[in-house]
């Protein structure tokens, strides 16, 4: 998030798109509801589904799935046409404006209505409400990013935000709601193929040299950008990737076109899975390592507003299970022993210097020592320590010991200097409904479960509230197909099929079905499309084409 | 402005209640329905005080101060009235405190002590308590204990003020009054979201986890403040542990969530002590799994990684870190993959 969660209490207009906030981020959802209810903040929801937040909204726009660039450009079009843009901000803080202005000319409300199905007048109202707000916040989540053109969607929103000068101040900004406790931290720590900790590019020789000296493992750091997860599985099937080490993830259930992923897991020469349960992915492993849960270790998580907060150990891990950090340290030592065993010849063949010996190598008394090391090499964390984040946490960037942290970004300048407008053309989803597969399928989450259900399916209460998948379909479609709530349906895409119970609901738009990926019994990701965004390599989990068939009782 | 409370001249501000001023100056007025996170409810009558000029006592939590107000918080009359109020509560509320998890950590129990309520008191009324009928609650995750309930209304208020839902309300009158799910509010049916805010504010343990583990007594429970493991909001909460078992999640003040929690944060802890947790390293041999110790398992992993790296180069190895793990762990893991294996093939599920 560019801004902070608490700023919801100060903003005037909130625009939510591609986030089922009250289900996936219930506490943030409540704060938004309260802002609307108590302070009369205005709420715009843009979502193909009639999500619960819609009942609190002043304006609800219902675009066809996968048409986001069109309606966002449409908003910009109206704002420019009616002269509602922030001339001062655009002149002083941005570049590429003229080209951008040209690019949104064709996105008239009438054209947008054709493409997205949003009534032209509603689009105009929403544009005025957002642009005229003294302070406006945009919240988005995977409904914006999980598209074959997800990067374009985000850039389009960034255009909108800059056009109206709704960034760099309190109560404004472009705010992605991150779905997992520490997805922000994992990115910050360089668990990404192109950047080292603190988003320092692996292709930057100066950066590499610094890490080389700091880590001193004796191995030459690679300056070649690695593979993102969505490219790893195809690479396995092409024989380019032979071994994988998977920590606390369940791609056999969570990834798009999961049959393909399972084929790849099967084909690996060697697979290590480190987790707290024997997941669907663990079934493919050669070695399974038992890890500790969040209750059994010390450390830090970084939340969606960049706040680094403490995690504290309450109990010991069960049996021989160990905290992941302990496992990594022991593994590094085992690896070094193995190399030493193989004589100098092998060590040289591996490009390893004598440095890689067991003296003080990968020894940390506790996670605070690891934190001090990572803070030293991660400029945005440089001023942080356990002592400093002990009470309430601190939001990065925090470059020095006396820096108070940064509640909102881009105050006087953007990271790159001036904010760049992007001229964007509208491109539809990779797969559209047709005669054979007439429905859109969109996937997402429900309040009571989390991701592939590894944890929440094992919580009695939560599993009682939502014990099984219920695929949602609009009443009009249900009637046409002769389906009622509780019937079983088969949902078929070009990639696979699943069977589940149906819930007739006004939540999905007509012509659309919705399913979650929480239930191993109904692995909905056998249906989804693994078409990737060319930049972020995100799969298009939010749109694919399916057909729905009633299953005879 | 200044007011005179129990003979002391105290500074007060416009908009403050008598209770606010008293608390600011460490004058204790007993309360039951009052909760810091909620607007004053004014239902329990424990905080009654005498205000000069008023013929009847007033509730300190709902009465605004005015300049020159003269307030008395502890007169013999007030004490007697509070005792009567407590006696009425204990006509219904069971006195078998030993069987209650919050024994020793209960506001009502403390007040009973302070005002010296005992069984003999209750006989003076010669009334047999009506046994309230058990009925459904708004969510199967919470059990409602009608006899314990003192009808203070905190839960009802929390559902509206904290959760923004309004799924529960009072039902019935007099001795039969209880808390029950709201059937309909105008044209809409408020839907309980099972967040448990009602349970969190209940002062007398009348709302308990229906499916939870047996909660420990206050004195045997360790409370450890930590960060929630579910979504990216980063709510602060307290794990309650008895021995090596997590028995409950309770709220803490402050944090981005300001003490509020959702259904997963509050009720999603069973997995921690679940019997299916992995407890030992496993190695697959000839298609079957065998338990191994750590040295064995890690030596094997190291051997295979070294093999594959020597045969096919570091880029033949790929790694997925985890958005569920800590910063420290993600840092170490990518350091291992980059600095020891020598590849940038490290990613995690940020895209899913």
TrEMBL record, chain A:
Molybdopterin dinucleotide-binding domain ranges (all copies): 439-545
Entry keyword set: 4Fe-4S, Electron transport, Iron, Iron-sulfur, Metal-binding, Molybdenum, Nitrate assimilation, Oxidoreductase, Periplasm, Signal, Transport
Annotated InterPro entries: Asp_de-COase-like_dom_sf (IPR009010), CT_Formate-Dh_H (IPR041925), MoPterin_dinucl-bd_dom (IPR006657), Mopterin_OxRdtase (IPR006656), Mopterin_OxRdtase_prok_CS (IPR006655), Prok_molybdopt-oxidoreductase (IPR050123)
UniProt GO molecular function: 4 iron, 4 sulfur cluster binding; metal ion binding; molybdopterin cofactor binding; NADH dehydrogenase activity; nitrate reductase (cytochrome) activity
Domain Molybdopterin oxidoreductase: 1-333
GO biological process: nitrate assimilation; respiratory electron transport chain
Family annotation (SUPFAM superfamilies): ADC-like, Formate dehydrogenase/DMSO reductase, domains 1-3
Keyword rRNA-binding: no
Catalytic reaction equation(s): 2 Fe(II)-[cytochrome] + nitrate + 2 H(+) = 2 Fe(III)-[cytochrome] + nitrite + H2O
Calcium is among the record's keywords: no
EC number of the protein: 1.9.6.1
Pfam families, alphabetized: Molybdopterin, Molydop_binding
Record's function text: Catalytic subunit of the periplasmic nitrate reductase complex NapAB. Receives electrons from NapB and catalyzes the reduction of nitrate to nitrite.
Protein name: nitrate reductase (cytochrome)
Organism for this UniProt entry: Desulfacinum infernum DSM 9756
UniProtKB/TrEMBL annotation, chain B:
Pfam families: Fer2_4 (PF13510), Fer4_7 (PF12838), Molybdop_Fe4S4 (PF04879), Molybdopterin (PF00384), NADH-G_4Fe-4S_3 (PF10588)
Gene Ontology MF terms in the entry: 2 iron, 2 sulfur cluster binding; 4 iron, 4 sulfur cluster binding; metal ion binding; NADH dehydrogenase (ubiquinone) activity; NADH dehydrogenase activity
PROSITE patterns xref list: 2FE2S_FER_2, 4FE4S_FER_1, 4FE4S_FER_2, 4FE4S_HC3, 4FE4S_MOW_BIS_MGD, COMPLEX1_75K_1
InterPro entries: 2Fe-2S_ferredoxin-like_sf (IPR036010), 2Fe-2S_ferredoxin-type (IPR001041), 4Fe4S_Fe-S-bd (IPR017896), 4Fe4S_Fe_S_CS (IPR017900), Mopterin_OxRdtase (IPR006656), Mopterin_OxRdtase_4Fe-4S_dom (IPR006963), NADH_UbQ_OxRdtase_75kDa_su_CS (IPR000283), NADH_UbQ_OxRdtase_Gsu_4Fe4S-bd (IPR019574)
Residues in the signal sequence: none
Subcellular location(s) per record: Membrane
Main location group: membrane
Keyword Oxidoreductase: yes
Annotated coiled-coil segments of the chain: none
CDD domains linked to this entry: fer2 (cd00207)
A single Gene Ontology CC term: membrane
An annotated GO BP: ATP synthesis coupled electron transport
Similarity remark: Belongs to the complex I 75 kDa subunit family.
Name under which the protein is recorded: Formate dehydrogenase (NADP) alpha subunit
Organism expressing this protein natively: Desulfacinum infernum DSM 9756
